[in-house]
Design a protein that fits this description.
heterodimer, A: about 350 residues, mainly alpha, about 60% helix, B: about 325 residues, alpha/beta, six-stranded mixed β-sheet, elongated, binds adenosine-5'-triphosphate, binds magnesium ion
């Protein structure tokens, strides 16, 4: 089909692709709630988690001492220690109740005087509880005259780039890219299908790939500012730095946004109702939420699962983001992740185009 | 030159439990330059038919030709030259009227300026308003404007005036008539009789997926045998019962009689002859009138005669 030049006197036209992108962008920015969910929510998340995991002075260990003849000896010993303990004396039953409720980490019962005997009640499944047992034991043993033969020096690890928040921010970046891409594209597409807007577009000579590419491309325009806001916030509030090349980081963000937009389009390619699409989106997102290492390293899962986990798009993206942000990796270093993401992006988009239903 | 729209033996079956045969062997031919109306009650298959013609829905079987071309081979060429308004589309609420039209305009090689489309539909004042803030009638007009921006030769309108107040409806008729006066073709569906009579050169009355009558509205009405309708109801009938249909039919100038649940309708050629004769007859047989009206026969009467029920019965319910 050749394109005839518009006859004189007729209105020149805009390019349909840019018009479609513009329409998506306008719709997005004119929806105040969406703005909050997209920009406000990730920041809220960083604030909450960042505050929860901020390095704080080691918290006082809460110890309950069973009332009895030896109780005062225990209390005196703990109070003389360098570490701070939060000591309370109570009846045996009361002590257990506190331990059960998590109000104390350890219960100490003192027995005979010479040599001193102690009984520790603790919950081996709670790390604080095990920690408290060892800390209290150290103090009481020394008080009873133990001499430590080795000389040790403690140095605390607080290097920037190595803190939990530095690990968390790339994870949140990846998670937001996934949520934004999948929900943004999936929901908007099905909504347009329900409103018969897709059918209306089909009734025009619009080129179908123009529309689909515009949906994907417009995601970039929302996601990039969102990620920059998140990064800036993490930097200002928590001193999270990017050690790698910012251009590589930007590339990863773009690629991630496109990949998840492509997956979103695929998920939404045939769904006829919002219920269907949200079910499908959850189905796709849940395994990645759990397995891809947003909050803790995905290496903790069994080795047998690793080949699958490592190929999930969110794992690929988060691994690459962490390498670049925390370790200053180059594009070459994350080449594997980048190429696998590109494959995800290309394949899902191609399938979506093929299966897409307009009515 | 080929017809603007031509379809023969069109069949559409929706699979499902139970399968619905929405269109059952429908033939249609719309000439270039005419305004053609598809008329029928709810569920008659109008939307299904028009969407097949628009190339939005595959037919189960049958032939379709639009402007001498076929769907599946020359889609883009057809789409460049037709304009469509669907029975129901919700355009993006957060875009302004002008932005929406600019978007639609961008899909066509040739067309009119979006501002010009706004002017034609009388929406200039709303150019910058968001679509979500328009009234129902303004949205309908915007839908028609979006169908016009591509400067089409052939316009498909599926119930464009449903839900409009009489004034907006008349405005839209004017726009459609203007379009036709430029020598272009319109295929419109409606269940408003008056609309079809005023607007359409020819109509096809569709019922249960088939065309049950077609022709110029005036001819169809003339086929009833009388241009006028006398309608009356009676006081509780006396012991000797209701007036017999035969007796009424034998009155002068009466060409047809319908009795529907105590409601009488006579097709009449000359009311000034039939009316005195009717009154005389009722007086002699001792009936008391409770209401009496005369009106021009309409396409509704044609439908009632052919299908045995009122066209807008479901719509009114
Ligand atoms: N997608 C579908 N699946 C199953 N049946 C359908 C579908 N669309 C329409 N139908 C059925 O086909 C028949 C014709 O529907 P259609 O929408 O063509 O009627 P219509 O003449 O446009 O009615 P209206 O005046 O109410 O718009 C109806 O019985 C309807 O229930
Ligand atoms: Mg319909």
């Amino acid at each position: 089909m050749n394109t005839p030049a518009p006859p004189a006197g007729r209105a020149p036209r805009q390019h349909p692709f840019w018009q479609l992108v513009l329409a998506r962008v306008r719709e997005f920015y004119r929806e105040p709630e969406a703005i909050f969910w997209v920009y406000g929510f990730p920041i809220l998340m960083v604030v909450t988690l960042g505050t929860a995991f901020r390095e704080k002075p080691a918290a006082a260990i809460a110890v309950a001492v069973e009332a009895g003849p030896g109780a005062s000896r225990v209390v005196a010993g703990l109070e003389a220690a360098r570490r701070s303990f939060n000591v309370a004396v109570a009846g045996a039953a009361e002590c257990r109740a506190r331990l059960r409720a998590g109000q104390c980490d350890l219960v100490v019962a003192a027995g005979a005087d010479a040599p001193p005997q102690y009984e520790y009640v603790f919950d081996p499944n709670r790390p604080e509880s095990r920690l408290a047992r060892n800390a209290v034991d150290d103090v009481l043993q020394r008080a009873a005259g133990r001499i430590d033969p080795a000389v040790v020096a403690d140095r605390e690890f607080t290097e920037p780039g190595g803190r939990y928040i530095d690990f968390l921010v790339p994870g949140l970046l990846g998670m937001s890219l996934m949520g934004g891409g999948l929900w943004g594209v999936g929901f908007a597409t099905v909504d347009m299908r329900i409103r018969k807007l897709l059918k209306r577009f089909l009734a025009t000579p619009m080129k179908k790939p123009h529309f689909l590419l515009a949906v994907i491309f417009s995601r970039l325009l929302f996601m990039v500012p969102e990620m920059l806001v998140l990064l800036l916030f993490a930097r200002v509030a928590f001193g999270v730095q990017v050690y790698g090349n910012p251009v590589v980081l930007l590339m990863l963000i773009l690629l991630g946004a496109e990949t998840f937009a492509g997956i979103g389009l695929l998920v939404a390619s045939r769904a006829a109702t919002l219920e269907t699409v949200s079910g499908l989106l959850n189905l796709v997102m849940l395994p990645m939420w759990v397995l891809s290492g947003v909050f803790f390293s995905s290496d903790r899962f069994p080795a047998a699962m690793q080949p699958v986990i490592k190929l999930l798009p969110l794992t690929l993206l988060i691994d690459a983001l962490r390498s670049v942000m925390q370790d200053g990796a180059s594009l070459w270093d994350v080449g594997w992740q980048v190429s696998m993401l590109a494959v995800w992006c290309g394949v899902t988009f191609a399938l979506a185009v093929r299966w897409f239903r307009w009515t | 030159m080929s017809a603007a729209v031509c379809c023969s033996n069109l069949v559409k079956r929706y699979d499902g439990r139970p399968p619905v045969e929405a269109v059952r062997g429908l033939d249609l031919s719309v000439e270039r330059g005419e305004c053609f109306g598809l008329l029928g009650p709810n569920g008659a298959g109008k939307t299904t038919t028009i969407e097949i013609l628009e190339g939005l829905l595959p037919a189960t079987s049958g032939e379709v030709e639009i402007l001498g071309r076929r769907w599946g081979r020359e889609d883009d060429a057809i789409r460049q030259r037709i304009g469509i308004s669907l029975q129901e589309t919700r355009l993006s609420e957060k875009l302004s009227v002008l932005e929406t039209l600019t978007l639609f305009r961008s899909f066509y090689h040739c067309g009119i300026a979006p501002e010009e489309a706004l002017r034609r539909l009388g929406l200039e004042e709303k150019a910058r308003a968001w679509v979500g803030k328009l009234s129902g009638g303004q949205k309908q007009r915007l839908a028609v404007a979006a169908a016009l921006v591509g400067d089409p030769e052939l316009l498909f309108l599926d119930e464009p005036t449903t839900g409009l107040d009489p004034q907006s409806r008349r405005q839209l008729w004017e726009i459609i008539a203007d379009f036709r006066r430029q020598g272009r073709t319109v295929l419109i569906t409606t269940h408003y009789m008056e609309e079809a009579q005023r607007l359409c050169d020819r109509v096809a009355i569709v019922d249960q997926g088939r065309v049950i009558a077609h022709g110029a509205p005036r001819e169809l009405i003339a086929s009833l045998g009388g241009e006028h309708v006398l309608e009356f109801t009676l006081e509780i009938p006396t012991a000797d019962g209701r007036p017999a249909a035969d007796a009424l039919l034998s009155l002068p100038a009466v060409s047809d009689v319908r009795i529907d649940d105590g409601h009488f309708a006579l097709s009449v050629t000359e009311p000034h002859v039939a009316l005195p004769a009717l009154l005389d007859h009722l007086k002699r047989s001792g009936h008391e009138l409770t209401s009496l009206t005369t009106r021009h026969a309409s396409l509704d009467d044609v439908f009632v005669k052919l299908a045995g029920r009122r066209l807008d019965a479901e719509a009114a319910a």
